[in-house]
Each structure stands twice: as C-alpha cells, then as structure tokens.
Specification:
By secondary structure, the protein is mostly helical. The protein has one domain. It is 76% helix and 0% strand. The protein has 4 helices and no strands.
Length: 79
C-alpha cells in the first residue's frame, strides 16, 4: 500500500527541505567544524537527498535545485 501525501504534507516537507538548506548554509558560514556540526551537516545533507527522491516531492512542481545545491555544498564541506 502506497501512502498518499496531501498538499499540506508536501508543503510541510518542502518547508523542511528549506530548513535543511538554511542550516547547511549557516554551518558553512560558521568557522567551527565540531563533531556535532559535522553530524548535523551529514543528517541534513542526507535528509535533502532522501526527500528530493520522494515521488510526491518530485511531482510537487517545486524547484528542487536550491535544495540539491545546498546538499552538494554540504557534502563538499564534509569532504
């Protein structure tokens, strides 16, 4: 059985993607790279990858480029 996401669900998920992108950019701007910050970065990069792969997000019509770009920046920061 496939879960049917409502428009409200999709909107909430897109807000979560934006929150992750914003947090990634804030961590990049910070001078410190503590273990906690690296863990937070990793979780948010993975969150963006997982969410952008979900069909209801792909079908939303939203431009996912800002989120995938943030995930790429975050992955580069982790490297």
């Amino acid at each position: 059985m496939t879960h049917q996401f409502t428009e409200a669900d999709t909107a909430e998920h897109l807000r979560g993607l934006q929150d992750s992108a914003d947090l990634i950019d804030a961590l990049i701007a910070a001078d410190d790279r503590s273990d906690e910050q690296r863990d937070t970065m990793d979780r948010n990069v993975r969150h963006i990858h997982i969410m952008c792969a979900m069909q209801h997000i792909k079908d939303s019509g939203a431009d996912l480029t800002p989120y995938t770009d943030a995930a790429h920046r975050g992955a580069a920061w982790l490297a």
